[in-house]
Amino acid sequence: MRFSCERSGKYRPFVKKVDGKEVTVKKRVRSTDTKKCECPFELKVVKGNDGWIVSVHNGTHNHPLAVYLEGHLYAGRLSTEQTSTVVDLSVSLVKPREILTHLKVQDPENVMSIKTMYNVQQKY
């Protein structure tokens, strides 16, 4: 297995096939940036006889460390209890910003965004 930085790789625009040809579709009018900056950081993990062997393929990053974790996929994940709280309060017609405030009061280290909560509401 290989583990890489979330900023590794290049941005790939949305492409769809029209009459057998791939056409880049510009869906958004607004200007947006991408997190991708071709970061070379990569770890290689192999299961050996004595357990897992982790080797550093490239240990450098080409970008500064994130100051805030809000908006990052891993840090913004919800636990099963938090997910059930969002679902229960949504069914009770509590406003999304109040649900977010409630979760952040329960867990001050929670860095989820309102977008994460909307995704949970849409899923359930």
Automatic annotation (TrEMBL):
GO MF annotations, alphabetized: methylmalonate-semialdehyde dehydrogenase (acylating, NAD) activity
GO BP annotations listed: L-valine catabolic process; thymine catabolic process
GO cellular component, one term: mitochondrion
Cross-referenced InterPro entries: MeMal-semiAld_DH (IPR010061)
Family under the similarity heading: Belongs to the aldehyde dehydrogenase family.
Protein's name in the database: FAR1 domain-containing protein
Species of origin: Rhododendron griersonianum
